[in-house]
Design a protein that fits this description.
9-stranded mixed β-sheet, 23% strand, alpha/beta, 14 strands
Length: 395
């Protein structure tokens, strides 16, 4: 059986998701649209509503719902469409409360009973629409909590800022409308910020939100390069390749900081006001002296910062951990390997407007262990008080 093509569209408003869907259907008029909404229940499973339509007369327009695991339900829908229809292109429109990358990883994960979705479909580039005014409000909002569907369940509580940047970071294509008039400044700023948050994505800016203007490239209705599923998983790992882009405009920039010695948690806490000044998004991993064997992830969105013990550093004798790591992480570990410290290192990227790179790097450098502290070894490091993670491991 010939594999079908699966396009995924997401966006921060229903209107901008509609723009993405409309553009893809212009490029592939006979594609099937499968639009989804997920409604949670206080007790029990969630309700997954689906709407199916196509310009092809062989596909009946339909709307129906089911109760259960959203990933399982959608996999069954997609497999049934491929088995029962000669059509080979499905456009899957996901709701705004989905954490796109982990959702896609779960959707494509092989199941014992039914095999992998990859036996039926090849993934097309992921299209994410960004409505500028809503996006700029969300990236500044850290005092509320939202939950996203990360696969089979609601994930942890996130700020609207974190949810907004995660969606942007999942895209292969960012669709940011560029309206004329008074909204053009805000749209330009949103496009520059979104592009800097996800430098690997292609930025497309049709002139208005109703989809008028240049269409998307025909390459968006062709299969993505091989290995897309593995890349999704790799981008969720605690140790990843940092992405930066130069010349995004509007004063938006990214500061990359690396260091090959442990951080003193107390001095790092003191450095945070300087390091996070003007930062919209921060990502990376830390090597804290108080937890020398743990990868501590740095995730910040707006003024909210989360530090979390997310994994263990790879050790040369731990074959199982090396096998479980993605090829990208194994390659990074080999590239940066130190004969004494192994994989351990600090690496974070901080993105914002008009950042003071030298001041940020100086503040973080000052939080590293001194030579005298370094000479104490791990037994001495672990006695250092940790005001950031404390004893719970997360703050």
């Amino acid at each position: 059986m010939q594999k079908g093509l699966l396009s995924v569209v997401a966006g921060n408003t229903p209107e901008i998701r509609g723009v993405g869907v409309e553009q893809l259907l212009r490029l592939s008029p006979r594609a099937v649209l499968l639009a989804v909404s997920i409604q949670g229940q206080e007790m029990g499973y969630q309700v997954v509503q689906r709407f199916l339509s196509s310009a092809d007369a062989s596909v009946r327009e339909a709307a129906w719902g089911a109760t259960g695991d959203p990933v399982v339900i959608l996999r069954q829908d997609l497999m049934s469409l491929r088995r029962c229809s000669r059509l080979v292109h499905v456009v899957l429109a996901l709701p705004g409360d989905v954490d796109v990358l982990p959702f896609l990883v779960e959707l494509w994960r092989a199941r014992v009973a039914s095999g992998s979705l990859g036996d039926y479909y090849e993934p097309a580039p992921v299209v994410v629409g960004v409505e500028p005014s809503s996006f700029m409000v969300d990236v500044g909002c850290v005092h509320q909590a939202v939950q996203l569907w990360s696969g089979c369940e609601h994930g942890e509580a996130l700020s609207p800022a974190e949810a907004a940047v995660r969606q942007v970071e999942a895209a292969d294509v960012l669709l940011v409308p560029a309206p004329a008039g008074s909204d053009s400044e805000q749209a330009s700023a949103a496009a520059a910020l979104a592009s800097q948050l996800n430098p690997r994505a292609r930025l497309v800016t049709p002139p208005d939100i109703d989809g008028a203007g240049p269409e998307l490239s025909a390459s968006l209705v062709r299969a993505a390069p091989p290995g897309a599923e593995g890349e999704w998983q790799a981008r969720l790992e605690p140790v990843t390749v940092p992405s930066t882009r130069y010349g995004a405009g509007r004063g938006v920039e990214t500061v990359l900081w690396r260091a090959r010695r442990p951080l003193h948690p107390g001095r790092l806490a003191n450095a945070l006001p300087t390091a996070m000044r003007g930062v919209v998004r921060g990502r990376g991993h830390l090597w804290l002296c108080s937890r020398p064997d743990s990868v501590v992830t740095w995730r910040s969105a707006g003024a909210h910062l989360e530090l979390k013990e997310a994994d263990r550093w790879l050790e040369p004798t731990d074959a199982r951990a090396w096998q479980a790591a993605s090829p990208q992480r194994r390659a990074l570990a080999s590239w940066f390997w130190d004969d004494y410290y192994g994989e351990r290192r600090n690496e974070i990227t901080l993105t914002g407007t008009s950042l003071d790179g030298p001041a940020i790097r100086s503040a973080l450098d000052a939080a590293l262990l001194t030579d005298a502290e370094l000479s104490l070894g791990q037994e001495g490091w672990t006695t250092v008080p940790d005001p950031l993670l404390g004893s719970a491991g997360t703050q």
